[in-house]
TrEMBL record:
InterPro entries: Bact_HTH_transcr_reg (IPR050679), Chorismate_lyase_/UTRA_dom_sf (IPR028978), Tscrpt_reg_HTH_GntR (IPR000524), UTRA (IPR011663), WH-like_DNA-bd_sf (IPR036388), WH_DNA-bd_sf (IPR036390)
GO biological process terms, semicolon-separated: negative regulation of DNA-templated transcription
HTH gntR-type domain location: 7-75
Molecular function per GO: DNA binding; DNA-binding transcription factor activity
Keyword tags: DNA-binding, Transcription, Transcription regulation
SUPFAM superfamilies linked: Chorismate lyase-like, Winged helix' DNA-binding domain
Pfam families assigned to the protein according to its UniProt record, in alphabetical order: GntR (PF00392), UTRA (PF07702)
Record's protein name: HTH gntR-type domain-containing protein
Amino acid sequence: MAKRVEVSPFDRAYEGIMEYISAHGLVEGDRLPSERELCVLLDVSRTTLRSALAQLVAEHVVESRPGAGSFVCPSRPTNHLDDLSGFSEIVRKTGAEPRSRVIGSSIIACPDEIAGRLNLAAGDHVFELRRVRGVEDVAVCVETAYVPASAFPGIEGIDFARESLTDVLGIRYGRDTVHTRLTVSVRRASAEEAALLSISEGALVFFECGVRADASYAPLEYGETVYVPELFGMSYNTVFTMDRKRRVRKEVPA
């Protein structure tokens, strides 16, 4: 007999709101039912409902307008770290068009701290590409990529204001990205990053760095990217199994 899984009130509220948005075809700017109506509909307390709404606000799914209610936010690109999509593909999934502005591209000697990540020797050359990436006309990240120059001859002549680096490596050079090893953290924006992204110096940003590799685990690219959290999300889907052991209370003689 299958074991019944209990759903917590918070999960019921959170998932119920998401299902309501989907089932009723709500889009950007549409208003959710009032808190009173949602509490009745989802059979949760107002405290639980507000916790679920706060989580959805943090995830940029809904926005709260004092005195007016809760409304569906415009969709934003989200990097699901358990898939291999590049920036351009992620943005196009939202129905928007990616934009790129090249702020630097050249063949350089590989920096010592990066050579090991790309299985290169000190002094080997890499193609360094720095771009501001955007959604339509809004800058959302600053990206720096390092690619082994010897593996991709002529790459410095490609117009990366128009081309996707992931597509170029896969289609033009036949080296598809199959494996990734990425680290995401939160830090504060430098003065240069703030100016490029039109945010305040010291504002919190997502910092992603890591290596993309081909089917044989040969490194294709090492990249570092700074994202504006309000404009570009990060997520990782996983499943945890918890084995709860019974606690046995023992009586200790006085």
